[in-house]
Amino acid sequence: MSASTGNGKAVPAAYPPPVDSPKEFVKRGLDPEDELIEVGVAIVGGGTAGLACANRLLQLLADDPALMERLGEVPVAVLEKAKTCGGHNLSGAVMRPGPLQELFPEMTREEWRKEGFAFGEVTKEAVYLTPTSKLKVRIPTPPPFKNHGNEVVSVSALARFQQRQAEEGGAYILTETSATQLIVEDGRVVGVRSGDKGRGKEGEQLGNFEPGTDIKAKATVLAEGCWGHLTGAAIREFDLADGREPQVWELGVKEVWKVPRPLDRLIHTVGPWPVKISARYGQVGGTWIYPMKDERTGDDLVSIGFVVGLEYADATTSPHDLLQLFKLHPLVRKILEGGERVAWGAKALPGGGYWSMPKLSMPGAVIVGDAGGMVDTAALKGVHHCIASGKLAAEAIYRGLKNGETSFESYEYAIEDSETGKELYQVRNTRQPFQKGFLKGGPLVNLAIASRGKLPPGRLKWHRNDEMPMFVGNTKDRYPRPDGRYTFDKLSSVFITGNATRDDAPNHIRVQKHVPREVAETWKWMCPAGVYEIPEDAPETGPVDVIVNYTNCVQCGAITAKGGRLTTPEGGDGPLYQIT
Ligand SMILES: Cc1cc2nc3c(=O)[nH]c(=O)nc-3n(C[C@H](O)[C@H](O)[C@H](O)COP(=O)(O)OP(=O)(O)OC[C@H]3O[C@@H](n4cnc5c(N)ncnc54)[C@H](O)[C@@H]3O)c2cc1C
Ligand code: SF4
């Protein structure tokens, strides 16, 4: 691939991250028995999907003491890199309630709210076009945006609740623990290796150094969320993406506000403002504003966020600044004015849908939730799919272990036959037409929605996000100057996430450090945490050096879509989200 298109454009994929995945992230064979920890099922990732798998497995094992005993002292272990489960989880989030109700059938939705992870049922909703920075036009609610009866939740709080349930059921939850290597023996996944702790900037061992450990498991579940570190290694190792479309990503930035007046409806805006409508910019984005009533404190809260597809071409596209700009629209001002921002965060989500999903099982392991690409981005819905996939994986693993099997392939078929499989199939061609731009793609998107997936026929292609030629455009000229009260800069936003990355931690961001300005500007503007800087005296054109302030990173994952790689940081580093 040519590095530069010669007309002020550069392709991030031409500057791949210095990474050797098979060598670095796959460990061939286990350490000797007396140096490892043995568990029944190892679940990598304590988000909604991984914990749903743990919750369901423990329910099944509670009724099967013989199998529970066979799985040993630690029947189920969850490895989570955040300080606590939920610490790295962020979503909109309006959730279809069915799968959570099925997972905990004895609980009512009132009880969800008392537990502090649910914030009310959607009874009213509105969808707007925003033609300009002042105008709004209400449109009939398109089918993907119909949310009547759904529940507004915080996935961060939900994960904490699921963690408590899993611990009560007998799971061993290893927080502050990154899984850094997939262990493969005789063509089968036999566990994962946890990361070292206490290394310095250059990888040297500090006084508090603790080496990682091999965790041997009869079954391994990859529940790492968007672009998982080990999931990527597994996809390569077992050719799981063979014959599929490439995965693509979107990036969302979210704030939670405490507001003086309750918002009485759920709101979505579908643009075109504040993104540019011209196809040249390749920008497609939308927003949400969700009402949240905290039953425990009586506070009225609002979740507000901006999601942008990472297929864009203008390097100065910044989802964080677009959200700040969006807040200046009178529609939003009316809701937030007089309120106070109480949380901020950012996260990427997989956008490719059905055709980009990898094969979900391999010998010894399965993939659940966002790691498997199970998100319907037209409707911005993934939470219920994550819970459903975690539950189905648990059931397949339980059946497999009971029969002494090491393949859990039945999970793949269970997904295909489930509501999740059917829903994702129905919207399989819904998002791709936007690659032609908002105006050209819009009618095809509408056709896909109206025909419930029957049209356009066939399999629509995805282009890789990192192959989009980037140019330095002028989207940045629209961003407001932060006032620190209503609009905020990136660093003060990172500050309120409770980010606790050590100043002398090793760098977990892999990027080339000398790249064309177009690529460097892409990283600088895209990163919601202000990690990438270009020195002030760098040349206006041609290659520039990139400074990587990796301790600011909130591990959103977006860099992986645009030419870099987020690898696992030391366990415990990163944000500590509470209500995102
Ligand atoms: C901005 C945004 C808005 C959204 N809005 C909605 C919405 O309104 N409704 C909806 O239904 N869906 C929505 N979604 C999608 C939904 O949030 C996701 O589908 C879902 O939360 C993903 O859950 P998960 O458990 O698969 O992954 P995650 O929540 O990402 O959890 C993965 C966990 O694994 C941990 N982890 C990863 N790798 C490792 C490792 N190697 N070692 C140890 N731990 C590891 C991470 O720290 C994390 O806790 C939204 C997503 C985003 C990003
Ligand atoms: S450096 Fe961290 S926060 Fe910034 S884009 Fe990359 S993963 Fe996201």
Indicate the overall shape: globular
Radius of gyration of CA atoms, rounded to a whole number: 23 Å
Which stretches are low in confidence, meaning pLDDT under 50 for 5 or more residues running? Answer: none
Largest sheet: 9 strands, mixed
How big a fraction of the residues is strand? 15-25%
Ligand list: flavin-adenine dinucleotide, iron/sulfur cluster
Return the average pLDDT rounded to an integer: 96
Number of separate helices: 15
* N- and C-termini, Cα separation: 39 Å
Structural class, judged by helices and strands?
Answer: alpha+beta
What's the β-strand tally? 29
Helix content: 10-25%
Quick structural summary:
With 580 residues, this protein is α+β, with helices and mostly antiparallel strands. It has 15 helices and 29 strands.
Topology (SSEs and partners):
Elements lengths: L8 E2 L10 H5 E3 L8 E8 L3 H15 L2 H6 L5 E4 L14 E2 L2 H6 L5 H7 L2 E4 L3 E6 L6 E3 L11 E3 L1 H15 L2 E3 L4 E7 L2 E7 L2 E3 L5 E6 L3 E9 L6 H9 L11 E10 L7 E7 L12 E9 L6 E10 L9 H8 L3 H7 L3 E11 L10 E2 L2 E3 L15 H20 L7 H8 L1 H8 L11 H13 L19 E2 L18 H6 L13 E2 L3 E3 H10 L5 E2 L9 E3 L1 E2 L16 E2 L14
Parallel strand pairs: 2-11, 3-4, 3-15, 4-10, 7-17, 15-22
Antiparallel strand pairs: 1-23, 5-9, 6-9, 7-8, 11-12, 12-15, 13-14, 16-19, 16-20, 17-18, 18-19, 21-22, 24-29, 25-27, 26-28
Features:
alpha+beta; nine-stranded mixed β-sheet; 15 helices; 25% helix; binds flavin-adenine dinucleotide; binds iron/sulfur cluster
